[in-house]
Amino acid sequence: MPTRHSNAARAPNGALRAVKPDTGAASVEPFEDVSEQATPDHVQHANGFHGMKGVGPEGSEQFDNEPHHEPLSPDDPFAPLPFNPYKGNRGLTRAWHAMKNSLAGFRVAIREESAFRQELTLAAILIPCGVLVPVDPVSRVLLLGSVLLVLIVELLNSSVEAAIDRISLERHELSRRAKDLGSAAVMVALGMCVMTWGLIVGPLIVHWIKAWL
Q: What pTM does this model have?
């Protein structure tokens, strides 16, 4: 059976190259070497390479030695914070906007929070008493500070409740726990206020009662 002559010959490295059918001479342009396999992208990323640098002297591919950095996810603690257009104010402009926001917070607390109104009424009575009571300056600061602490904790508690209601109004164990913890903080502040006034002003009241009787 006659053998059919092929018009392609195999090079020593395994690549096919064209052969002229009339003379049998090899063409000067070889086909692509099928024995060389390109490095997959996921292998390059796994090895810390992210791009091709060039071709080496023997035809081997050279890659950059710089590691490939994946973009940080939003949950990554080192990810940059998103741009907040409300944080662009500086100097006196920032102080002016902060004061307006604080006054707006006071108005909302007085209008919407009955507990804050009750504690504000109590503070309106106790603060003048703390100023007029004859005690040393440190005791006076403790009396006034304990009253103001109750207002501060109540404002924080109200802000936590507003944030939870903004997320969802459904009944949830974690929402209930957060609100209960805020109420517990207010109760601790009230207890501290009562204890401070009882220890400082209590002996004075007893002395005045005995002197009057």
A: 0.59
